[in-house]
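ARCHIVE RECORD
Type: protein–small molecule complex
Small molecule: copper (II) ion
Source of inputs: curated submission
Record status: active
Notes field left blank by submitter.
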Amino acid sequence: MKNTLIFIVLVLLISTNITAQNTEIDSTTVVGLSEVIVINKANLKNRKLVKPLSSIDDYLEESNKVTMIKRGNYAWEASINNMLSERLSITIDGMQIFGACTDKMDPITSYVDVSNLSEVKITSGQQGAENGSTIGGSIDLKLQKNGFDKEEFNAGIDLGYEGNSNARIASAEVNYSNSKFFANVDGIHRKSDNYFAGGDEEVLFSQFEKFNISGVAGIKTGKNSVLIGSVIYDKATNVGYPALTMDVSLAEALIASISFEIDSISETINKWETKVYYNTITHIMDDTKRPDVPVHMDMPGWSDTFGFYSKMYAKKDKHNFLFNFNGYYNKSLAEMTMYPNDPNENLMFMLTWPDVRTFYTGLYGEDYFSIGNNKALKFTARFGVQNATIADDFGLNSLRIFYPNLEDSKTWFTFNLSSQFEVAIQKTKLLFNIGYGERAPSVTEAYGFYLYNSFDNYDYIGNPYLKNEKSLELNISAKRTTKKLTLGAEVSGFYISDYIIGITDPDLIGMTIGADGVRIYEALDYATILNTNVTASYQLFPSWRLIGMVGYNLGNDYNGNNLPLISPFTYKTALHFKKNLFDADINLDGAGKQTNYSSYFGENETESYAIINASASYNFYFGSQKLYVKAGVENIFDTNYSTYADWNNIPRMGRNCYVNISYLIR
Ligand SMILES: [Cu+2]
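STRUCTURE (tokenized, with ligand):
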């Protein structure tokens, strides 16, 4: 069955004459090395593959550049170009936020919801350095805001149900705007029980509950100036992580900002925007619901960030400039208290993040200009200074066990540069990009203290003497668009020197009961990562469209060993039908066997899989009211499978029937 399906996909792809990659899978558009995923309700018609009440994670997974690493059914971690959070710049409307979990249970994307956002911009490699230094790329989650164009009032309600996990989702929003003022208020609540993998296998500890409320308001302060304030409050409780040894009893975030924008300042300066922001995150881990816990632990974490940016768009002759001066101050603190079973033994207390204060400031500039004959050039540069200070003496002294001469403060300088050449030859657009980027080590990599990693079963200790990680990258992409057919291909290669990864120290003994030992973050000479993908979209008949994607990736260290969490061969294909207000699609997702796995980092050979999903939707209009109904079945054949991106091979969801209803009144 599986082989037949793979064969059908390949035939379909070959028959559409695929030579190469990067198509918009409907709700995404491609701009250079960026991809924009539309979430906003007003653009409902652009959404086909995803249900309106999908999580942000599902939306992100639509992108060809992104894979989500799953530790359960909630708070997946995004990877771009096969690189995870430390190597990416992830922001909310340009704001820096840092998770408060030492085990990566709370990626930034888990603190917003679809009700807050209008779109997500995903950018590959050094082209994504606008908001911060990066190696793999960037994700910027853009908040939904009305404009001042016209007087408008609308309100909406969304309801969703997922049969597999008995998930109930409800969201409501109210939006108002006139020529002087706008306000958007929304809230969403999600509650899900355990899900079932294929063959009715219950995945214990996969439940979650989440509540999110947000408000954005803007006021015109002059003919061309605007003041905008935004607040998001997000609270997740009782979140299970089946792939980990602990769950989360509370993950809470408050994210606030005020910005001031001036348009059309002069002939040269088009727009100048300045924002100040603050966010605070509390993360409480919980092992009290797990049976057979050898030692009960309390592991809370906190992360607070103050920041600003000031962005200017300018135009002079053929040149389009963007400057972004930004900075932040982050405080990361995490504790671990172990309660021995024998009440006569002492409690053990550690600071797993020793109250690290990170101060970063940087300047970004870009220039995009045409050089005639359908040719354009783009140059970008970012320079940053990052200082980290350990504010807690107990934490500093703990790290001095390993690094006796450790100073409490250290500074890194980072550079990110890229240049891009694009040319359009008739219906084909070619893009060449070369980039160089650096990043400083993360708090965990520099100062983490006995952080248990359930993937490879080692305790990890940070290394404050790590140098910057440096990456040289090359991207080539081609896209050909004709009336019926869009074909794209993309190849990107990364040569990363001083690649930061954990290496076993045989002299140290693990703290976690049952761990295999201790690993220290070290810099490998270099590592290489290669990503390729080919996409195609073909208009079969006026109402029928066929799309397809294949991707292949490789990642090795300087000794030729495989890097962990590198995607095997993957493919997607979908057939869409659209007529008037009706939409339907059937799609196939799959991957080949993971042959290039890393046993050193706890991976094994993950089997190939293929699953089929189908959905249908209809728009109803009654005067000023609109009702959108979407229903579908995911994993129709109830396949029991896991992918390379599933932490400790936890199986994915089996068959799931769902329905989403959106109601909007103007
Ligand atoms: Cu955690």
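CURATOR ANNOTATION: Residues 1-30 have pLDDT under 50 and may be disordered.
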